[in-house]
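Example record used in the benchmark description.
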Amino acid sequence: MKLRKSIETDILVIGSGIAGVCAAIYAASEGRRVLLTSSANTFSGSTFYPGTWGFGLVGPDGEEDMEELLETIRTVGRAMINERVARAFVEGLDSSVDELEALGVELMKPSEDARGEKEYIPCFDHKHRRWRGLTKKKLLESLPSILEGSGVRTLPFFQMTELAMSEGRVSGAIGVLNRKDLTYIAAKAVVLASGGLGGLYKRRLTTDDVDATGSAAAMRAGAKAVNLEFMQIMLGFVRPSFKTIYNEKTFFASRFTDRNGKDFIGKYLPEGIMEQEVLDARSLHGPFSSETISRYLDIAFAKEMKREKTDGLTLRYDLERLNSGSEFVKEYFRWLKAEKGVSAEEEIILAPFMHASNGGIEIDENAETSVPGLYACGECTGGMHGADRIGGLSTANGIVFGMKAGRSAAGYADDKALVEEAEIDAYGIANSKEKLEALREVMYRNAFITRSGESLQKARNFIGSMELMKGRCSSSHDYLDSNRLLSSVEMAKACIEAMDLRKESRGSHYREDYPEKDKSLEKMIRVKLHGGEPAASYAGGEE
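Model output (structure tokens):
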């Protein structure tokens, strides 16, 4: 069916986390009309996820530190980076964060006494960098007035389902407004800032509006994805305060047991490795990695939960040791008590959760995708991170490439015309919500911490058995839910394909059947959405 445009703008930004907000502000600064949309309230997505105190922003400690930081990203990413994109990222880090602060966003800085504490060394890094902290509270105090002053219009509760195309370029987006009105927004350029792929998993440390819809729409339009096999998996609270992030800086005072109070980690350790060694190594980074002995803690969690058929395992803090912690640790527990009502004295049930994507839509150093008129930024993109990601660089990525995407889209839109109509296939799929939950369960069991050819085939077989016949659409929200299911299925297939192609363990990608790294596989893997088949691979981040 054809839809006439309901709304028009020069630049349409999909997603209102930090990446989308930065894109909108900087597109508007070039004199463009900008519409910032969000599938929930304005200021949503992972940036505003309430499960943690806030986010660190890491950058080079002066110009002389840029090359060292780039080399560290390359090393931590296990050579799985696009060199041009990563360099543009590093070179833009400090100036972009400074620009955000100049706009009026208040950032935290370490106190003079705490500046040298090891807790301010980012995850997977080996030295102190320039560190800034970004909290949801400070963002919400400043961003509304910044957007208003920039002339950015906002449109909450617009759930994009497809990118509109005309003569080979993106001409806007189609979606559902307020879960009832099919809407075509005509635009000269679109910036995708729709977040990562947390919505593919049963347990995820994201808000529910973070799903695979934006990424799938981009790939259906012809964009490619890179590094989909790499993701950040972290421990989170099952009870109390579901989906609160466990802070890895507290491993030194943590004791993990099964639900009967018995230690379980030791029985999954190879001979000669002690549990305390694993805990000490695991305290250096929040997300799971296969690269050091720290991996045995997360693997033990996954296997014990499967063996016991339980939803989580028990954490008890050693309060005497905890009280000797650093400023950083004490601030975390002050936040945990004030915001979540959880104290260190309580029994806490933990489980692994999907936290963030390290890969996504492939962009260049200017945030441009392979689809004319489509730009992307933030967690929905890939190339600047690799197999593991240094802590503090995810939000920084949103800021740097959000600003780049806004400026690039504004330049592209200069001589483009608006397109009056768009085509839409409004369909329905029976029991779409129930099928999506079943898919998330299967992905959590078979394509998460411990992967193998066998487990990935189970996930693939499940998807193959799903009834996804497109039928008559009974309502706009029926179409919306069905599109979300189909998008999740398509992105799950693309992720499974990337995981299966990488027959080795590297960074956050752990294969039980290929536990060691394979030098012959030291290459990035792209996929596209035509069944998830590989589009291309290239070594060292260069074509």
